[in-house]
Amino acid sequence: MIFKSNIQTKLIIAFLAIIVTFLTVVGLVAMYNRHIVLNTTQRVKALWEKTKDISRLQIALSEILMPINDYIITGKRKYISDYKLCSKNLEKYLDALKDTTNINITADESEILKEVCSSWHHIKKISHKIFMIRNPVGNIEAARLMEEMDYIWGFPIIRKLEKWHELRDQEYSEALNILKMRSRKAWNVMFLSTVILAACSITFTLIFSRRFVRIIDEGTKELQVMMEKFRESEEHFRLLTETASDAIICMEAHGIVNFWNKKAEEMFGYPASEAMGKDMHSLIVPERYREKAIQGLRLFFQTGTGPIVGKTVGFFALRRGDAEFPVELSVSAMKIRGKWQAVGIIRDITERKKMEEKLEQKINDLEQFRKVTIQREIRMRELEREVKKLRGM
Predict the structure, then answer these.
(1) Which pLDDT value is given to residue 2?
(2) Which of 26, 50, 110, 180 is deepest in the core (most CB within 10 A)?
(3) Angle in degrees, CA 364, 165, 80, rounded to 5
């Protein structure tokens, strides 16, 4: 009896040693992955903020040229106040870009920033000269200063900022992809660790089950503890999805919704209790996209592949009440119990689209103003030639 008890004790100690060692390794790996994901998340946020600062500076530079040109065209002093207000905004955004507390800038970006500062210095000097001219309408010097300000210092630096914006967009996309990859890797590690732990437990039980039945009975208690930890992990996953800033929707065969997080409720206007078990296409996909989306899902549920799986695509989604709004969609595939399921992460990009449209409108306005200015300059030169002819007579 004592002999059996000693064997049982040693077996339990060996079993616990395997579990503790394995859980320690898994815990360290999980903590490391969490640290990496958090750092990457902070970088993504910092890149996004810097990208917005560049866009604001582009808009501010475009806006600050308008009151100066309007003053030359109309001679109204009220445009000086508009210029001062725009100047404050521009310098605020410029200071934000100079701040490298959260993110470093490359040599190319540093060069662009120096050029922006230099151009802004010249624009301020030129604008001061223009505002010193009391009657700028038709004034040749005012026109010359305006041409220098627009074509030498204004428009070229706006194009430089566009290049900077493209660099930041590319860097933001790369950082976002790294974040997604590391997040998936972290979850894969946790999943693989759970599988390995379960496999080790099953193997250990099979080897010693016949000889140590009573030990297996006690091992059941350990298994219950493990299952409780597994349930805690599921609860942790649920909490993560509920606090996510993007809508997360899972679908099974025929496009039926089987997961709908809190953000999806806010974004689309349907509570989870109402969305679960419904066809996703009838809820959030506009009519013009539905047939193509349904055809893509047929292939997906057979093979786990599709034209948008593993990619981020933009389209319009449908909010409750049939209001459309722009979104970005990332689709991943999961195979659960031998069946493919789709996981969609959806981000509302309404504000980004508004910013892009506003910037595009500003650029169009500037282009139109440029054409008008050129026509005016051509006309002024024609008048000068006519005046010279009259003087020659």
Answers:
(1) 44
(2) 50
(3) 55
